[in-house]
Amino acid sequence: MNxxxxxxxxxxxxxxFLGVFTVVVGALFAxxxxxxxxxxxxxxxxxxxxxxxxxxxxxSKIDLFFWLWIGAIVVGFVLWEVFPVKEKPRKxxxxxxxxxxxxxxxxxxxxxxxGEYAKVxxxxxxxxxxxxxGYVLSAIAVLTTVIYLCIPSNFNNKAVTLEMLDMAKxxxxxxxxxxxxxxxxxxxxxxxxxxxxxxLQKVTKGVKQPNEQGANCxxxxxxxxFDNKKVVLAIRIVLAVIGVAxxxxxxxxxxxxxxxxxxxxxxxxxxxxx
Length: 274
Prior knowledge:
With about 270 residues, the protein is mainly α. It has three domains: about 1-90; about 95-220; about 230-274. It is built from nine helices and no strands.
């Protein structure tokens, strides 16, 4: 218990430190931007002070703080793994619980549970019907749009706004109908799942997960493999090492400088910053 308290304290205090440090680095960056913009060397009439040389010189003043911030983020990832905190068990959401139990639904009603089984089947059919109806309406909406776009006579006004409004009058009702169906159907399915969940629990009580073979079994094994916490941690570490290695490689071969110059060009020439 003391270890858990110590881990929580370390995470809390380091999180506060990292948050404050992030704000400081952001403030330093904003300060340098304002300093460049308000510099006396900037032209008065044509204010474009953000040249490559000026920006590089200004941001080089906060290089140390930036790299310390990057190091602090890396240290934070390490601390989160070194000081794990046992999470409280969470309640399974009814929709997720229903999705798990419906896979164990037997092919026939157990003895004495015919009414409960019928209730579950009714909810299952409702969910399937809503899904199919949504797919059909979405397909009709897309097909209507494609057909409308393929008719040249629908675009002879030479006024893009009017043509788009005319197309919207034709295709939007179908899209609206699909959206309404999805919304109403989702609400009905959610209500049905909530009401039929107790019945589903009774019907599937004592029923084991069906033995899957072939591709399904392989998918389950792959899913279980990636659910392993050690595997997930190993993948995270490998990706972090690869990312850091690529950043260092890019810094050493000059690519970071090239990307930085392109970013400055985008801000000053394309967006018009400054």
